[in-house]
Every structure is written in structure tokens, then in C-alpha cells.
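Narrative of activities, Objective 1.

The group set out to show that a structural description can be obtained from nothing but a protein's sequence at a throughput compatible with the screening campaign. Below is one input-output pair from the validation batch, recorded exactly as produced.
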Amino acid sequence: MGSVESVEGTLTRTEADARIQGYKDGDRQLRHYGGFNPNDLIENNMEAQQMINKLLIPQFKQL
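Output recorded for this entry:
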């Protein structure tokens, strides 16, 4: 957070506004979640489900 991006050339007003809005959204998410990305939780859950289906369920069926 707080980094400055240097851009060569010119930006249209629309491009500049889009970049500013993107920065605001990122800053808002950082304040709300404390740097934690909720999408990571979803991805980790999917990986855990795959591991359970691959490793634990076959072992349970053998019992």
C-alpha cells in the first residue's frame, strides 16, 4: 500500500480515473480485511476439498 506507479506517456482522463478507482478499491479492501484476501480463503477451501476427496475418502472406504 502507498506505492507510486510511474507511467510513461499520457493517460486519458478515463484511464486515470479507472486507475484511481482501482487504487481506492484496493485500499478499501486492505482496510476492511486487514490485508487478507477473501478469495484466497475460497481457493484454499477448494484445495482442501480436493485433498479430502483424493486422500481421506478412499481410506475411509477401506475400513
